[in-house]
UniProtKB/TrEMBL annotation:
It comes from the Eukaryota. SUPFAM superfamilies: alpha/beta-Hydrolases (SSF53474). Residues 417-601 form the DUF676 domain. Belongs to the FAM135 family. This is DUF676 domain-containing protein.
Length: 676
């Protein structure tokens, strides 16, 4: 005997945005929904697609959406992408249905896949016509991206905005909203036949004889009827809110009028007191009748949800998007341990070496308790075992910490001629492509940003850092001068990885004319005090070999061996003439798991065991007059035994490509992206 809930899953596919797709061509989205238990998958069945622009041919609607019943999947319309920053209005709602055990089955999984073809390199009108006539033979679509979402607490009503992000050479985002609604219950025998009242009563009251007790009635009423009513009321509140927010309400009065009052159960007495009988079968019939009445109301609300998604999908998406960003911001802040200090900057390290243990314990507690605040989450970012944990120390010379936040920052699509320029600089023997994921994340959350990925020092990182700084400065100046006349750079911020953070500092003397525009400086594991001391002998030996074989001036400068006296070395001189005070905010990000760059050097700190050194002088020079300094230690969930983990490379690279870390960083410093 099985008692299951019948649940409708609405996925409203609102829009698709090109962030940085490398290839022009045709794209479509495939979505599957299922529950997974061990090796078994229980697929939700796609039952209907609502498409508001069906049958209208444009380059954004080449083929209509369809359902593939063979693999229980939905395929979106086929659309062409030709331009950067291109947005495709999708306006499609796919409705899945699933039968699920309400209290024992696992989470719901939603798999979203991106497919692409360039029609063999021929995107001419003739080629498109052939494709439309016979799409199955004239194209060869390949899967180029995938994203997996887990839904928790979804069986009794879920309503959430979700950005589906694809990365690498197919950087783009699909905006969807997910809605679930419990419609009714179905009772079946083991042979999948519908049960009669006698069988249902035995299933609902398995430990009772011919008569039931008050607590048994209360339990069944709560588990079945109250949950059904609560789900109905939850969906009704959302529908009513969207209708209230819609300016075109007068044109759709029928939708408003058809909403019935919420389901309530009058009286303060326990529901069992409303029953004058205790016979198990008769009580079961009464409860089933009550359930049927509630299910009829649920069906009406479910239909209104479908109509609202068809008429007002944009309004629904905007409303839920703000709530999503608020939730993610709160969740991100929960993964940051913060300490604020007002007054003089402390440059002697007092770093807590128990932070790594704290991070592991925190992840374990999240995983065991499943305390996710998001009802639907991207497993690459929000799964407990994937979370990066941040330990932030904030130092402010005077005043108080201002920590603003507005969800609308990430929802604002207003185009302004004043632009905030972010300059991203790669590290030693790196390339601009190393910074692509970071760029994509910035553009994802703030499309109006100007982002320059520096390429001027590619294949030139063996030389002098002085020359690298000049090349970077010239590249920035040329970029700003090449902008259209109507575009004005109002702010400039820098993000440098490893050596890139030092190159940025070396470029600042050549950028004095832009001093008033400098806003934020962010270094990711940059050796500000040099690499004179390593925690990993393999890395130290490797750098020594490189400096000898390649005669690398850069390595000599970073290891403070470019002069006989450390106080005449390049990094010491760079510290004496430090320009970090140009910036309103300075953020030093590092990881104690990183053995490529000394931890204290990346934080501009000196260990307690050796405070009286020339590096203490360097740290003092750099920190002088810095108004607001953030030091962040990132703990990554790195798998033990990885080759890259043995020499500390995993954490060093994770600062550039770990989705959890980048997501938390963006939400933590969201105000930086919106500075004007």
């Amino acid at each position: 005997m099985s008692n299951k809930g019948i649940i409708d899953i609405f996925i409203n596919v609102e829009s698709f945005r090109n962030i940085d797709l490398y290839y022009q061509g045709l794209y479509y989205i495939q979505i599957q929904v299922f529950q997974e238990n061990n090796t078994q998958k229980n697929f939700a069945v796609p039952v209907h697609v609502n498409n508001s622009i069906e049958g209208v041919f444009t380059f954004h609607s080449i083929l209509d959406p369809q359902i593939k019943y063979k693999n229980s999947s939905y395929l979106s319309k086929v659309f062409m992408i030709k331009y950067s920053d291109e947005i495709v209005k999708m306006h499609e709602t796919i409705i899945f249905q699933i039968e699920s055990y309400l209290y024992s089955n696992p989470d719901l999984t939603i798999e979203i896949e991106l497919y692409f073809t360039d029609l063999g390199g021929d995107l001419s009108p003739e080629s498109l016509s052939k494709f439309m006539i016979n799409p199955s033979t004239s194209s060869n679509f390949s899967k180029v991206g995938s994203s997996t979402f887990k839904c928790v607490d979804w069986k009794f009503g879920l309503n959430q905005f979700c950005p589906i992000v694809f990365h690498d050479t197919y950087a783009c985002v699909l905006y969807i909203t997910i809605h679930t609604i419990l419609l009714d219950y179905i009772f079946r025998t083991d042979s999948q036949e519908l049960s009669d009242t006698s069988q249902i009563s035995h299933s609902l009251f398995p430990l009772c004889g011919h008569y039931v007790q008050d607590e048994n009635i209360e339990r069944v009423f709560k588990d079945y009827i109250m949950n059904l009513a609560n789900c109905c009321n939850k969906t009704r509140r959302l529908v009513k809110k969207i209708l209230k927010n819609t300016n075109t309400l007068g044109q759709n009065g029928a939708i408003k009028h058809s909403l019935k009052p919420p389901i309530t159960f009058d009286g303060e007495l326990p529901i069992s007191k409303c029953f004058t009988i205790r016979n198990k079968k008769k009580v079961t019939r009464l409860l089933l009748n009550e359930k049927t009445e509630v299910a009829e109301r649920v069906a009406l609300v479910r239909n209104e949800l479908e109509r609202v998604l068809k008429c007002f999908s944009g309004e629904m998406s905007k409303y839920l998007e703000e709530k999503y960003h608020d939730k993610v911001r709160n969740l991100s802040m929960e993964h940051i341990y913060r300490e604020v200090q007002i007054g003089e900057l402390n440059i002697v390290s007092e770093t807590n070496h128990l932070q790594s243990r704290t991070a592991r314990a925190y992840r374990k507690s999240l995983y065991s308790a499943k305390k996710d605040t998001l009802e639907a989450y991207n497993v690459r970012i929000f799964a407990p075992e994937k979370l990066a944990i941040l330990f932030e120390e904030i130092n402010i010379k005077s005043g108080e910490l201002i920590d603003p936040w507005k969800a609308k920052w990430f929802c604002n699509t207003i185009i302004s001629s004043e632009k905030h320029l972010f300059v991203l600089v790669h590290g030693y023997m790196g390339s601009g492509y190393d910074m692509k994921t970071l760029k994509d994340v910035l553009i994802l959350y703030k499309p109006s940003l100007l982002v320059l990925i520096s390429e001027s020092n590619e294949k030139h990182t063996e030389g002098s850092i002085v020359d690298m700084g000049k090349r970077l400065a010239n590249e920035i100046i040329a970029f700003i001068q090449s902008l259209p006349e109507h575009v004005t750079v109002s702010r400039i911020s820098f993000i440098g990885h490893s050596l890139g953070g030092i190159i940025i500092r070396a470029a600042l003397p050549s950028l004095i004319e832009y001093k008033r525009l400098m806003y934020a400086y962010i270094s990711l594991a940059s050796p500000h005090l040099g690499c004179a001391q390593f925690s990993n002998i393999l890395v130290e030996a490797g750098l020594w070999v490189i400096s000898k074989i390649r005669n690398s001036v850069c390595i000599q400068q970073l290891t403070l061996k470019d002069c006989l006296s450390p106080r005449h070395c390049f990094l010491y001189d760079l510290a004496k003439t430090s320009k970090l005070h140009f910036f309103e905010k300075v953020i030093l990000v590092s990881s104690s798991q990183d053995s490529y760059v000394p931890f204290e050097s990346a934080r501009i700190e000196i260990g307690l065991e050796c405070p009286d050194t020339f590096q203490l002088e360097m740290a003092d020079f750099i920190a002088t007059n810095v108004r607001q300094l953030h030091r962040i230690n990132v703990d990554f969930p790195i798998k033990q035994g990885l080759i890259s983990d043995l020499h500390g490379r995993a954490a060093h690279i994770s600062l550039l490509d770990n989705q959890s870390f980048l997501n938390i960083l963006i939400y933590r410093f969201a105000d930086f992206l919106n500075a004007r």
